[in-house]
Amino acid sequence: VLGLQSRTDPEWARAALGDEIALLRDHAHLERKAAGHVITLLGRLPDAADRLLAVAREELAHFERVAALLARRGAGLGPDAGSDYVRRLAREGDGSLLDRLLRMGLIEARSYERFCLLAAAASGDLRELYADLEKSEAAHHALFVKLAHERFPRERVRARWDALAGAEAAIAASTPWGARVH
Ligand SMILES: [Fe+2]
Ligand SMILES: [Fe+2]
Predict the structure, then answer these.
(1) 171 φ, ψ to 5°?
(2) How far apart are the C-alpha atoms of 150 and 98, rounded to whole Å?
(3) Which bound ligand lies closest to the C-alpha atom of 62?
(4) CA angle, corner 125, sides to 122 and 126, nearest 5?
(5) DSSP state of 93
(6) Which of 26, 56, 63, 122 could covalently link to 38 via disulfide, CB atoms 3.0 to 4.6 Å apart?
(7) How far is Cα of residue 90 from the mean position of the Cα atoms in its chain?
(8) Cβ(105)–Cβ(141) under 8 Å?
């Protein structure tokens, strides 16, 4: 799926949906942080401002949509518990623009994969949410990879993607299942 080197066991979705409020809270913060990371990236890619701002707006819209589902369930946003998956992935590679773009592309690809599984396992408003978001995260993945290809040689992008995707697959496999997107 989208250049990922592993597939998530579909059973994972049932574990994630075991606590809807916790899953939605983790998800809301994930969207909020995604918007922030894209805004930060814009500082390094001013020529891609239009495309990045469009992504940031979408991530904020996702955040608002997930927050509204929490409100509908009588729950607030709650504090951000943080993500071990994201923290560990951030330590892979370096601070170069190429690695940053590819790490962001990997997170989007994994989010796409997870939302597909969640859409298949959920019902009602949650199924609708995940089905709508999966397309959007796949498009974000494609944009980050495209931005990398516009700036770096094909072979180098391929080599860094392979290395980071290998690390990402290992991190995803060793992160315990829970009511989280990752
Ligand atoms: Fe999103
Ligand atoms: Fe995204």
Answers:
(1) -65, -45
(2) 11
(3) 1
(4) 35
(5) S
(6) 56
(7) 13
(8) yes
Between the two ends of the chain, the Cα-to-Cα distance in Å is 16
Please tell me the distance between residue 123's alpha carbon and the centre of ligand 1 in angstroms: 20
Select from 21, 56, 59 the least CA-distant residue to 41.
Answer: 56
Residue tagged 């930060």 (tokens): 40
Cβ < 5 A residues, ion ligand 1:
31, 59, 62
DSSP secondary structure, 52-88, as one string = HHHHHHHHHHHHHHHHHHHHHTT---------HHHHH
59-110 pLDDT, tens per residue? Answer: 999 999 999 999 999 999 999 989 999 999 999 999 999 999 999 999 999 9
